[in-house]
Design brief:
Mean pLDDT: 97
Low-confidence stretches: none
Number of strands: 10
Number of domains: 2
Amino acid sequence: MRRDSSLPEGTVRRLTVDSKVLIGNFLGDSPHRAIDVYIPPGVSGRDLPLLVCLAGYAGSGLSHTNWRNFVESVPERADRLIGSGAMVPAMIAFPDCFTKLGGNQYINSAIMGRWADFLTEEAVPAVEAAYGCGGPGKRGVFGKSSGGYGAFLHALLHPDFWSASACHSGDMGWELLQLMDMPRTLRALAKAGGIKPWLESFFAKDKIKDDDTHVLMVLAMCATYDPDTSAFMGVRLPVDPETCEIIPDRWANWLKWDPLTLVETHAGGLKKLKALYLDCGDIDQYNLLYGARRMKRALIRHAVPHIYEEFSDDHSAIDYRMDRSLPFLSAALTA
C-alpha cells in the first residue's frame, strides 16, 4: 500500500528463466523460474546497480512485489525512498526460489537443488542481460531470516560476484536456532509415525497451520545441510528420534554451514565488499540475536568493515528495516 501517491511510481516486470542447473533436482521442483524486476521511475535501468532480494523461509521473491494491506511492498518502499531522495536509484530483482519443502537457504544441495549456482550463473546474468544493469562491482544481495542467511552466505562464499550484502535477522548460531525446534519436531513426527507419513500427511492437507510450517522448516534444513539421497525426500535427522541426542557426524555436517563457522575461514573475502550490513531485533524469538552478536565480534576480530545494528522488535514483520539497508547498499554500489 503506497504511503504517498504523489511520488513517481516505478514499474515491475517479470522475466522467466528456464534453469539448466535445476533440471532433474531431487524434489522435482520446476526449473522454470520467474523473476520480478523493479525498475525505478523515469529510467530504463541501464548502468544502475542491481540489488537481489532473497525471500525468507516459506516465501518467494514474487511475494515481495505483491500489494499488501497497511504496509508497503518492496517496490513501493523503493519508490518512497528514491522519491524522497533517501535512496540512490537501483534495480531490484526478486527471484522465485520456493521449493517443495517450503523454502531455500540459497546454497547448493543434493536434495534442494543448486540454488547458489542458479542465482550466480542464471538468475542475475539474465536480469543484467535484459536491462543492462549490475555487473561486477555493482551487485548487492539482501534478505531477512533465511533470506538474510542467503545474503550473508553469498557474501562469504562469492565475494568476487557480489559487492554488497545486507542481512536482516539472518540464520546463524546453530545450537540456539536449529536445535531449539528439534524436540517439537520429534513430537510431531512420532505422532505421525515418522518422517515419511508426516510429510505425506502435510502435502495432503487443505489447511496448513503455523506448527506444521515449523516442522517442515526443520525437515527442509535437514535436506539442505545434511542431504541423504537414500532417505524419503532426502531428509534425515541430526538427532536421535527417541532421545533427541545429537548424532555427531550428522550434526557436524550442519555446523559446516553455520555462518559463525564459515566466517573463520572466509572472512578475508568479506573485506572485498563495498558494503556489509547486519541487524537483528533485541527480542528475536528464534534466538538469532545471540548469533548476530557473535558474528559482530567475529567481524571485528577479523577486521571486516561492516555496520551492525540492533533494534527494538522481534523476528516478525520487520520489512521496515529495509529503510536502513536499501539506501546503504545502493549508495555503496553507486559510488
